[in-house]
Design goal:
Strand order of the largest sheet: 1-2
Shape: globular
Helix content: 55-70%
Distance between the termini: 28 Å
Largest sheet: 2 strands, antiparallel
Structural class: mainly alpha
Radius of gyration: 21 Å
Order of helices and strands: HEEHHHHEHHHHHEHHH
Length: 307
């Protein structure tokens, strides 16, 4: 019976139980925040609905991060940086690579639509202060979303599945969940969910190639920021007022994505799919320096137990 719950090799709970505990904690956190959400309603006339939403997201992701730290510390007995969030090594390089990739991917979609006569941009008549304020707010909001979603879908649960199963199973399960999580977004279609799943595969591949979350966080942030703030596309079905341009768009929805944004069109499928292969096979990406290694950790534990 003990072996059903306890892995003697790692001296910890088996992966399935660890994942179950983590999921239960996450569900409780979401339930609590959803329950107290109405108490934040009086703030909406003062700071705006979007700011209140981002505040709740911050509380959600901060709570999930702290909870995960406790699970790692007291159940797994591993350091927090084992999740691939370390400020040592080449995290700046990986984050920069991700930001560059996300910008190039989304810019490619706009450029293709522009030359096909499907999209044009005009810059809004903002003061310098307005532009700086808007960019700052948009950067902060998109950092929050990129970190939170990567932590949820490429963090503890994904990495525990990697250890307990294999790359293919872990990628498929978490990418499907990533797509399902966006199924409640406005203007969603079957095609857009498929594209979100493909994006999940891309972001999972970024982690697997580097053993770090920085590359996937950079891609996720830059993709959303460039998509919404710069090109004024809808981001996963949601239209933002925090844009520096006005977009005029025509053309079939299966190409442009329509009201869901580029993530609902075939251009996204092609570009994201191509980037998956680029990341996986390119020597430009490699395992992060000073990244935590599960196999090395097992060897160190075995060595200590034999002394």
């Amino acid at each position: 019976m003990k072996n059903l719950f306890y892995n003697q090799e790692t001296s910890s709970l088996r992966n399935g139980w660890r994942i179950a505990i983590c999921l239960l904690c996450y569900i409780i956190i979401v339930f609590i925040i959803t329950s107290v959400q109405r108490f934040f309603s009086p703030l909406e006339p003062i700071i705006g609905n979007t700011t209140v939403k981002n505040l709740l997201l911050f509380i959600l992701y901060a709570s999930i991060t702290i909870t995960t730290w406790f699970i790692l510390r007291f159940i797994d007995k591993r350091p927090f940086y084992s999740l691939g969030i370390s400020f040592k090594g080449n995290f700046i390089k990986e984050l920069s690579q991700g930001i560059f990739l996300g910008f190039v991917m989304m810019s490619s979609i706009f450029i293709i639509e522009y030359f096909l006569g499907m999209a044009t941009l005009t810059f809004k008549n903002f003061t310098s202060f307005d532009i700086i304020s808007l960019l700052f707010y948009s950067v902060m909001a998109n950092i929050l979303i990129a970190y939170g979603e990567e932590f949820l879908f490429r963090g503890y649960i994904f990495q525990s599945l990697l250890e307990g199963t294999n790359k293919v199973i872990a990628i498929i399960i978490l990418s499907l969940l990533f797509g399902i999580a966006h199924a409640i977004n406005p203007n969603v279609t079957i095609f857009s969910i498929i594209n979100i799943v493909v994006a999940g595969i891309l972001l999972s591949t970024a982690y697997i190639k580097t053993h770090s979350l920085w590359l996937s966080i950079g891609i996720h942030f830059s993709w959303n920021f460039t998509q919404g703030c710069i090109f004024s596309f809808p981001v996963s079905g949601q239209v933002s007022k925090n844009t520096i341009t006005t977009l005029s768009q025509t053309g079939p929805e299966w190409i442009t994505g329509g009201a869901f944004g580029p993530e609902g069109g075939i251009l996204s499928t092609i570009i994201v799919g191509g980037t998956i292969f680029f990341i996986y096979y390119s020597p430009w990406f490699s395992i992060s320096k000073n990244s935590w290694s599960f196999s090395t950790w097992l060897e160190e534990k075995a060595s200590l137990s034999n002394k």
